Predict the 3D structure of the following.
Amino acid sequence: MSLLLQVSDTHFGTERTGVVEDLVALCAARKPDVLVLSGDITQRARRGQYEAAARFWERMRAPARLVIPGNHDIALFDVFSRIFHPYRLQRRWFGQDLEPVVDTPAMLVLGVNTTRRYRHKHGEVSKDQIERVASRLRAAAPGQLRVVVTHQPVDVPGPGDANNLLRGHAEAVPAWVDAGVDVVMGGHIHLPFIRPLSERFPGLARRAWCVQAGTAVSHRVRGNVPNSVNFIEHDPEGGRAFAERWDHGEGGGFAPVLRVELDLDRPSG
């Protein structure tokens, strides 16, 4: 069994120290094979916030790790930095590659940078990105769970969040599903949910899933939704996968609150 831990929207600069410690402890206890940080690492893309986030990420141990930026990870008020080197601090603390790939025998995880320096909040995926990701998905090994990670969501649970949908999602999702994606995961809206992509895209060629994360450690929670993270378990030999949501409790610690089997749609031959 291979295990992926998704952490999102940490918003360092607004973090809850106790929740940070509990998440580090959870990671140490469950020992994921893959760690994903799906954007909005910092609150305002400031040096001290990146430094704190990097110290946290160094404590989150896993054989493979993947980090993509969110819209909060580009400076908002420092206009010079935003225009001329929007990812300088991101690259300094989290690596040069803004679209990293994790390729293991059990999982293929593809990061997509959906931020743009000319957008304050909304995300965007280009035609070139759509095709590049689709091409890589088509080259995946038969037993791999195929995951695409964006920051802004390709699905939302209600009309109130429709404005937060990733620009280009209507073109990206059918292309990626046709190319073999099993899961598209993201963050941004601080609202965790797990559901089939067919609920928003009824004409898809295959079954695939949307796995959205809440905010992992920030006090910027949404309504009564607590801090949360997601796990994905995959058994490449048995061909089964499960997504779990773990919430932080008032008394401390993370605990599982939802487990969904991801009905994988694989060719029979």
